[in-house]
Amino acid sequence: MSNKFSLAIFDLDGTLADTSQLIFDSFNFVMRKYKSIEMAPSQIMSYFGPPEEIAIKNILGSDNFDSIWRDYLGYYEDHLNETEVFAGIPELLRALRKTGSHLAIFTGKGNNTTELTLKHHGIRDLFDVIVTGSIVKNHKPSPEGVELALSTLRVEPAMAVLVGDSLSDYRAATSAGIHFIAAMYDSLAKNRFDDVNCVKANSIRELSALLLPQHAHLD
């Protein structure tokens, strides 16, 4: 794999930021309040693909949705201080920009929680294009979001890479004909790629070596 790309596309949850527990807690907060139920992380993840608002409707129905969604966003925003960007990610993103690479996000999160997360952690302005689950018609593993980033930034697939922690990220990348790197430094990703022949980064240092030209360095 070349270590120089014109475009690096990143998933958000589990790739740029360690936010998984907050997502599970936010879902369970509204489920307890409105239906007196809780779900294990694996059950909640089974609803992933569409953005959170659709997943919540699929679980709780559409009645009182405005109140449910307001409570979800309130809980999520109030507890963002319990999350963190993976150590080394901001430095990697800035180093990539210095090399002239475009940066994009393709996430299944909706617009609201994506903006809250990126602004809270101070990395919103590092990205040229942000494609959320609210924007695309066909969600991951569809390549629609990847193709939108490619066309917006006028980058050929061979010069682009997607970094993600899920099989849906991998399938979106391969369907779009771009490179893929599995973000293995998130604990939830550890066993997802056991049977997948792809490039894997077990740390941000390994990811940096795969993405940055040899002469580049982290600040």
What are the segments in which pLDDT stays under 50 over at least 5 consecutive residues? none
Supply the number of helical segments.
Answer: 9
The second-level CATH architecture of the largest domain is 3-Layer(aba) Sandwich
User: Could you please say which CATH topology of the largest domain applies here?
Assistant: Rossmann fold
Largest sheet: 6 strands, parallel
**Helix and strand run:** EEHHHHEHEHEHEHEEH
Word description of this protein:
- This protein has 219 residues and is of the alpha/beta class.
- It has two domains: 7-18 and 85-211, HAD superfamily/HAD-like (Rossmann fold, 3-Layer(aba) Sandwich); 20-82, DNA polymerase, domain 1 (Orthogonal Bundle).
- Helices cover 42% and strands 13% of the residues.
- The chain has helices spanning 20-35, 41-45, 52-60, 65-78, 89-98, 111-120, 144-153, 167-176, 204-211; strands at 7-10, 17-18, 84-85, 102-106, 129-131, 160-164, 179-183, 199-201.
- The strands form two sheets. It has a six-stranded parallel β-sheet, sandwiched between helices.
- Helix 1 packs antiparallel against helix 4 (65-78).
- It starts with 6 loop residues before the first strand and ends in an 8-residue tail after the last helix.
- The relative contact order is 0.19.
